[in-house]
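Note to self: the last two entries modelled the partners one at a time, which told us nothing about the interface. This time every component goes in together.
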Amino acid sequence: MYGYMGKILRVDLTSGKTEEKPLEEELARKYIGGSGLAAKIVYDEVGPDVDPLSPDNLLVFATGPLQGTGIPFSGRYAVGTRSPLTGIWGEANSGGWVGPYLKRAGYDAIVFRGKAQNPVYLVVTDKAVEIKDASHLWGKDAYQTEAQVKSDLNDSDFRVACIGQGGENLVRFAGVMNDMGRTAARSGAGAVMGSKNLKALAVKGKKAVEVANKERLSQLIRGLKLNKDGPVSIMFAKYGTAVLLEMFEPIGDVPFKYWTKGDARRGETARIITKVGGGSIYRNILTKNYHCYACPIGCGRIVKVTSPSKYACEGHGAEYETTAAFGPLCMVDNLAAIAKANDMCNRYGLDTIETGSLIAFAMSCYDKGWVTTRDTDGIELKWGNADAMVTMVERIAKRQGFGNVLADGLVPAAKKIGHDSIKIAKHSKGQAFAMHDPRAFPGLAISYGTSERGACHVHGIGWAEAAGVGFSPFHLGGEEVKKYSLERQALNAKVSQDLADVADSLIQCKFALVALIAFGTQTAMLSALTGWEIDAKELLKAGERMFNLKRLFNCRCGVTRKDDIIPELDPLPSTANYVPKGNELEKALSEYYDFRGWTRDGIPTEAKLKELEI
Amino acid sequence: MGLLSFLIGNPITDLVVTAEIKVGAWVVGALFFIMRKVFRLSFESLLVRLMKLPFVREMTVNVMVMIKPIMKGLEPEALYVFMNVLRIRGVKEVIFPTVMSTGVLIETLTAPEVIAKLGGKKKS
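The predicted structure of the combined assembly is written out below.
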């Protein structure tokens, strides 16, 4: 089968047995790969009664057809599971080199089931599969683990995906780490890995991916050359994704003070951004850029902080989401502290969006008197307290003191804190909002609410459309979306979610989807790669199929219409482009369900499932 | 820089510039409305047609190439000026999305694959 290795590796950690299963071409064409393939496997085998942290849950590492082919932006892998944070479908993906190496080791996916008696790690090469003892790795952070695994295997060419102490301690938003700082962050797949006593996965291989039409594919890849020299690429290459802080703060997209403060003209928010944004990172702490596999941009940063010594760190620099979560959301204007918090998350293996959001939420509760220094062991969680923020990251990872309250996620933390804290918690289905504000881009109110893994900025890129960098009217059937209202946003949310599922199955960086590779070109590349006569319509339908399958999984887990409505947001002076209200959201949601072909309760209809061949 | 920030961030400047932008957008919108109704030409299809003209196509590609060193040389101070300009409501609501979507469209249209289809020589 062209474009695939044609094999799925099954690993039963309880018995220690491994088994190879074929990947059927029909399944591949319907679910492509990556998160789509993972969703199909999890949907078929994980029932609603399976505890996410029990041995019966599955953890799927999946690649897609693009990995290992040299197609730009294809240095990714996906993880899929039932999320311990939300209790519903969970997925995340990460850049770096693990994805292509896993594919070239000969597998399209690895499915973990069961729980090892003692900590283990799995070594996969193109010649053998071996489960090895990881007792000596338990307790080590992700950077130490990666280095130790390579040292144990006496081969620095291995690529390692692993967990830090966060995953070991079952912090429900622990991520899977790889390549010294890249993270499959959201949904808590790291905790699932920890629950299985699986410390790491090391992959390496040289098997070639067979391409149906090499000449055509090379031609298409060469054709992408000019786009990488475009303004968007250059800005990300120079300043990293953190430059979005400078771009989006003035239009009210960056959340401040846990969603209670926005763009005040020439005010405090602008001052914070100029101190912590992409420009400041570039000027003050950047040491070099780096690229993921086959990436023409290189938005990865290596940063170094030497002073003050308490924040000294060196490694993968903070992205936009991380900088916004630890900076503006906590009202912290100390770039060194943000770099330190990011570094600690990378080492402990935590999702920075969730961690930053939880600390900002705790600061908000502290500000209201719902949390006091008695609860926090003396830590003053005041707005802008950088020391407190950094300390809390460690407490969360180690589940110490008040950190243990936060380590189970936003909703359980709010329940423990009590008062009206649940009313101020900004989440969807238990996962914290990403760092884009639905008041700036109203389409987010729908896509945050309906995203299959809980609030998510990359599975409903309506914000990109509203900012003008999104999809062409082709995708929206010629419809024009009004930028600053809820009008027509339902269709925008639906299409952008389907497109995102296509990208996550191929599996490709969202840069390609948002701005840099036309969807038609992506389709043409898939055709050249696999030999399938597939057009944009069929590929988009595959995205819709995957989205609906994940929705079915969520419905089985108890998700209903009420879970698709996001918590209320207060109007903000001068930023307030739009404040989604309950009844307007209900109307937009009904419109969204109509576009989706779902019932008014948010359940895919029989006709829709038949149309999508689910 | 401070003076520039003050001038750009001034509420009166915001009011005046926003009004001008909105009037401009209304005029341009009206023109495109007429074009759509009379000539059945959307902004996108107009751009595609323009790109079929060799002179426009070559000039656009050249401009794209010229932008590269300018963008690479953009220092943080310029970002901060850009931040302040974006604060103007008219820029935020009208100019920014328009420029971004047009930019992305032009990037797509100047991709060698598309250029070749539009009639120009393939560049790689």
